[in-house]
Each structure stands twice: as C-alpha cells, then as structure tokens.
Specification:
single chain, alpha+beta, 2 domains, six-stranded antiparallel β-sheet, 3 helices, elongated
Amino acid sequence: MIQKRRLKIEEMKRSVELKLEQEISELEKRSSEMKKLSQSEDHLHLLQSFPSLNAAPPTKDWTGVSVRPPSYEGTVVRAVNQLEETLSKQMKKLFEVELKRVQQYAVDVTLDPATAHPKLILSDDGKQVKHCDVKKKLPDNPERFDMCPCVLANQSFSSGRFFYEVQVKEKTEWDLGVARESINRKGQIKLTPQNGYWTICLRNNNEYKAGAGPSVHLLPKCWPEKVGVFVDYEEGLVSFYDVDAAALIYSFTGCCFTQKLYPFFSPSPNDGGKNSAPLIISPVNHTE
C-alpha cells in the first residue's frame, strides 16, 4: 500500500516536471524569437509578427498543485518575468524607431468640404471637423456623404507612402483611416475593406475596434489622444499608431490597392455635447 502511494506520488511529480520543462522551453524559444526580431530591418515583417509575439505563451497556474518542486516553480516565475520585461522593453524600442521612420513620410492633409456630411462643421483652414445638430442646406453632389457624418481629405494617393496625425482628445467616438475613391457615399455605409474602407474606431468612450469585417476588438494599453495613420501603397499596408505612447494600435496587411486612397474622418454624432470635441489634423512633431 505504501509502495503504491509512493509510486503514485513519483508519477505525479514527474508529470509536473515534464509540463514545467515544456513551459520553460516555450518561454526560452519566445525570448529567442524576440531577440532575433529586434535585430531585423524588415519593418513589415515586424508588424506581421507583432500579434503572435506580443503576448507571452500560456502557462499553467501551479498554485493549486500539491506536488511541485520549488526549484521548478521559481524557474518558471523568473522565466515569465524575464520574458515580459524583455518583450516590453524590446517592443517599446522597436516601435519608437518604427514611428520615427514612418513620420518621415508626413504629408499635408486638409478636409474637403465638398465631401462633408451636412451636419459637419469644418474649420476655415480645413484642419478640424466636428458634428452639430443643425443640418446645413448643401448641394447633394455625388462626392458628399448624405447619411453618415463623414468627410474625406482633399489629397489623394495612388503610390508610395504617406503619414498624418489626428488629435482625438476628449472624444467618446470617432472613425479614422483611408478610403478608396469609388466608395459609396450615400445611405448607410459599413466601414470594411470589402467596401473600400480601412479604419479603426472608438465607441462608447472605451471600445476600440478595427473595421476588418468582422470587427476586431482592440486593447490599447492607454487611450490614445493622437493617432498616426501610415500607408504603404505598394506593400498594401495601413498602420495606426498611438503617437504619444509610440505604440502600434493595429495594422491592415496584405491589402490590394488599385485606386486612389483618401484620408477618411468621422467625428461621429456629438451625443448631446458629450462628443462635441473636434477631430484635429495635427502637425507632425517628429519623435526623438
């Protein structure tokens, strides 16, 4: 009886040891991948690899296991802590460099009043847009959004790279991104790549989404006050950055662009004044 119990305990102990060894091996592998990635000059590969490498691999909660060698537990804790610290430092450094690189492609962007929904108010310099409750009497020209509170930029791009920044501070809802020339501007529109829109949005003051069709829920570490939008036309890349945090918010990769692209803006309804702050196209202050 005692011998059977001893054998069972030994089996449990060995099982725990094997699982711990597997977790340690996976953590060490992930750390090695991060180090290699940090030395890469391939920025597109970095963005494509980011979702899979940004989070540590899943590990078991060993606190409820009664048979666990203390040395292994300590090793796992140290490995996890080291990996998280390595990930955090390397990703911060990588995206500081990446943001500085894309800011070199800054362009001057102004809003096109001929495309603006009748309830939108544009500043005289074409740099700000906000929503009001009064619908202005404007020509229903083909370029104008007639139902959704949206506006496009005057500038369009059909090659190369471009970058611009938009202040979203004190807003509870907004949409930003780029749209192709042939988008439908009449009636209700769905912001998806299939419909010619590559956008992210804020809803209900704290819900960030990418309009990937279906929507992708985003979890930025902090609420961005200024969003940078970068497009590489030939690479089929649209990336969004939290400028102040020098952090990537989301990237559309593998896009196939065949038409002119226009910067796209929606301040969303003002919600009784709760969302009355404007979207502001801001000068690009290059990250140091």
